[in-house]
Design brief:
By secondary structure, this protein is an alpha+beta fold. The protein has a domain at 63-181. It is 25% helix and 24% strand. It contains two helices and nine strands. It has helices spanning 13-59, 63-66; strands at residues 68-69, 80-81, 85-90, 102-111, 116-122, 129-135, 140-144, 166-170, 178-181. Strands 1, 2, 3, 4, 5 and 6 form a six-stranded antiparallel sheet that branches. Strands 7-8-9 form a three-stranded antiparallel sheet. The longest helix is centred in the N-terminal third of the chain and has 47 residues, at 13-59. The protein is elongated, with a radius of gyration of 34 Å.
Amino acid sequence: MSTLNTSSRGFTLFEMIVVMVISSLMAAVLMQGFSMVLGTRLSVNNTIADLQTVVISQNVPVDPLRGILPDYKDNPNQFRGQPRTMTGQTLRPLLSPAGAPTPFTMTLDYDSSANQTVLTYEEPGRAKTEIGRWPGNESSFKYRDINGAWQTSWPPQASTSQTPWLIWIDIGTATSPLIAAVSGPHDRVTRLEDSPFANMSPK
């Protein structure tokens, strides 16, 4: 009767080297993959941040203009526009809660020391706030009715509405202009005291 002798042996040096080489290759591939993922993530985050900055810088100046409202003729907040300043009231103020008609003034001021035009925004009782800055001294406001050409002041003589339908902020030749579409009504609803019969007394 024969007896089978079983003997156990460990890993050989060659096998250990092979395992270490394979492990090193896998680690290198994984590290390279993680590096690519982190680089892509950083690039995407930077792109999103840049896009957010562009969107904010383009929407902040025009947001109050979208909410411009007409005012009654005996009130002081009727919309008035010139090439470098405009005044009126808006439902979308930048410094006050939205929803209530808020008087505002928007001005283009030239900073000669920096050779830049500064767009400022102001509400009654609040400090003037800078909301935009562009190189040069070519910036201006323009206004347009539902029909006709762009005007450098508002209201024009041939205007059919109290507020413009479009407002153009020219921010220089190097950048596309900002254009706001006024979304609210362009004339106040006629009050009883504004009607032709308001001053008629009964006989």
